[in-house]
Design a protein that fits this description.
By secondary structure, the chain is an alpha/beta fold. Helices cover about 40% and strands about 25% of the residues.
Length: about 300
Amino acid sequence: MSFFKQKQDEEEQVYIPVRSLSTQLPDNTLSVEVEDKLRAKGYKSRFKEASKVIIPLKVIAFILIFISLSYLVITQLKYIFFSTSYFELKEFEISGNSVLNNDHIIKKSGISPAQHVFNINCEEIKQRLLGEPLIKEAQVELQGLNKLKIDIVERQPYIYAKYGIAFYEISDDGVIINTEGMGEKDLPIITGLKLQNANLGSSIFHNDDFYMAKHWLKTLDEKIIKQISEINFSNCQNPYIIMLTGEKIFPRNAEDFKNRYVFLRALLDNLRKNNVEPFYLDMRALNAIVIRPKKLSQTNSENRGLTTGG
């Protein structure tokens, strides 16, 4: 009996403290530490919620500030670049011209002093300059902030192409550079070229007659050309020559005429000494020159002409 009683007493001793603790702490009461943790967790949650709103506001504010500063910078740069004289063109440097004066070249370029350098397109200026018939080549570049350099190569007159009563000056690349001359320059005169639709600035470079004329002028010596009044290419396969002394010559070709020119000069001198005025001299036969006089003597009235070797 004592054993069971002791066991019961021990169970009661254990049970009584538990009941006493449950009576001291109500079921809905939390410890201070737990409450602090819960409170801190609530603060973090509210901070995260606030952060979701604050971060986009910061981004928007940064963008607005950046736009405002950019606008201010752009406005100031625009004023510096476009509303001040610091970037205005102040000087032209022109070289290579001998016929065209500087004012004409500047006018042809389409550029005026005080024009803003940022509005200058060097390639466009070059193309405008090349529209001038006398300008063969052009280089345009900006030097520094205020100087425009223009270097040109002028076309030189190569021949006179006589058309009607007009003398067209033509350069060696076939461009008509002047139509108002009267033949006053010391240039070879070419007649018979087809210039019906040609005008100032036109090119006849691909004209067959012009090609043949260049071939003749390149083949003949300058001293020979100086003695020629004109070369006619109305028929480029059968051109004829008018000498300064008035004789009309039908040459075989440019090379043959050059080779037999000395003999031809001696023959013409001999004809003048004998008072024979030729209507024409035909050199198209190989090693022979046929002379057609303007007035035939009584004994030669039935002859078509005189023939001499050479």
